[in-house]
Amino acid sequence: QVQLVESGGGLVQAGGSLRLSCAASARTFSSYTMGWFRQAPGKEREFVATISRSGGITAYADSVKGRFTISRDNTKNTVYLQMNSLKPDDTAVYYCAASGVPIPTKLTYQYKYWGQGTQVTVSS
User: Fold this and answer.
1) What is d(CA 110, CA 121) in angstroms, rounded to the nearest whole number?
2) Angstrom distance (rounded) from CA 88 to CA 105
3) Under a CB-based contact definition with an 8 Å cutoff, are residues 10 and 99 in contact?
4) Cβ contacts of 40-49, under 8 Å, gap ≥ 24
5) Angle at the Cα of 47 (from 44 to 49), degrees rounded to 5?
6) Tell me: the pLDDT tens digits for 69-115?
7) Cβ of 3: how many Cβ atoms within 10 Å?
8) How many other CB atoms are found less than 10 A from the CB of residue 22?
9) Is the Cα torsion angle 27, 96, 112, 64 positive or negative in sign?
């Protein structure tokens, strides 16, 4: 069982930055592929970014590529999402998730463990 707790959300103006953190309870954190997803009101949950177990491989949704950066610190059991040049369309609840799949994946169903989410609101 893996417990995930996100933090760092909030209200920011367009063009601003936020850094989300996700702390994991698992002693074997480094054995999990990690991902960030988001869900805006009335929309499906969508993939944002994923990172391999070692942190050496990352992948992003086209909508955030070049603006967001995912990273992880396996010594702290934490994954991060640095969000720059934020836009109102980035407004959503952001979730981190852990997958037992050994390679980075964008597929929601391959993530077994989910956090409770943190709200990000970008004002225009």
Assistant:
1) 27
2) 26
3) no
4) 40/91, 40/92, 40/93, 43/92, 45/95, 45/108, 47/106, 47/107, 47/108, 48/81, 48/94, 49/81
5) 160
6) 999 999 999 999 999 999 999 999 999 999 999 999 999 999 999 99
7) 12
8) 25
9) negative
